[in-house]
Amino acid sequence: MSQTDYYEILGVSKSATKPELKKAxxxxxxxxxxxxxxxxxxxxxxxxxxxxxxxxxDDNKRARYDQFGPEGVNQGPxxxxxxxxxxxxxxxxxxxxxxxGGGRRQxxxxxxxxxxxxxxxxxxxxxxxxxxxxxxxxxxxxPCDGSGSKDGKSxxxxxxxxxxxxxMQQGIFSVQQACPTCNGxxxxxxxxxxxxHGEGRVRENKKLNVKVPAGVDNGDRIRLTGEGEAxxxxxxxxxxxxxxxxxxxxxxxxxxxxxxxxxxxxxxxxALGGEIEIPTLDGEVKLKIPSETQSGKVFKLxxxxxxxxxxHRTGDLMCKVNVETPVHLTNFQKKLIKQLSxxxxxxxxxxxxxQHGWFDSVKSFMDKLKS
Length: 371
Description:
By secondary structure, the chain is of the alpha+beta class. The chain has 10 helices and 15 strands. The chain has a 4-stranded mixed sheet.
């Protein structure tokens, strides 16, 4: 990073507006702040960023800098130093989330969010169900109603003197953060609760009934507001996030709103046609198999898939039939199949067009290799 080109330090052009300067300053300050960047030169770069912004944000300083460079600013009237109130406002915005203070505004502490995963069967995910879950969490203490106080009394915090904020030195800057003694409340508990010892919450296993809506899919998430961990001393509770894990099904495979299934059929049904019963999530339905059906043929059963939880569209069931080769044949059965095969072979390419077409392609390919 250049030591003298303030525009280069902030990563802006010489025609940058004040809003553009402020945005670039925030970005660079976040990048090089020593509490976020442990590089050896981070603090020096952080100082350069602030020096550059303090110069360019001031119209008079910027004019002198553009004409004379850094020397014109540092030696001119009013050069150097920071405008304390303005810089404090800026750093309250930028680093409130780092130090927990939120600038000069007191913030109510919030409980931690909790994330769990529950397993549901495909049928449960499709039709919806209510599941009882048991989660270990931090809940509001009942004896003190989450306040942390045995008798409800409190006193002015001895550290922040009721302000809820304390000023901490961070390198060359002084920033505010929530008081660690009173958690930003400005009050201390005089007589802590015997059960929670003043924290306002206790660890326990909590039972909840989670309503799983119809149509959820694997990886979908349900948010239960306020069912996460309780906050210390009566703050706002966090949220509970429940992730869906839909278990594999023995028959169906789901792809978004469609279902896929494979169905074995016998040789005679594939050749002569017939009717078979297909399982669906609503019960069995009959599927007509046309004659001369080949293995791998896919039949679509419209509206027999899953009704989406988002669009309310109902998917389809894709049924793939596989012609099953008979096994454990008797000698008589083998004799009959042999007779059938001889009869089919006498028909030439009429009965097995795909087979003969494939062999023709193979012959042509081999001839090319020989030539």
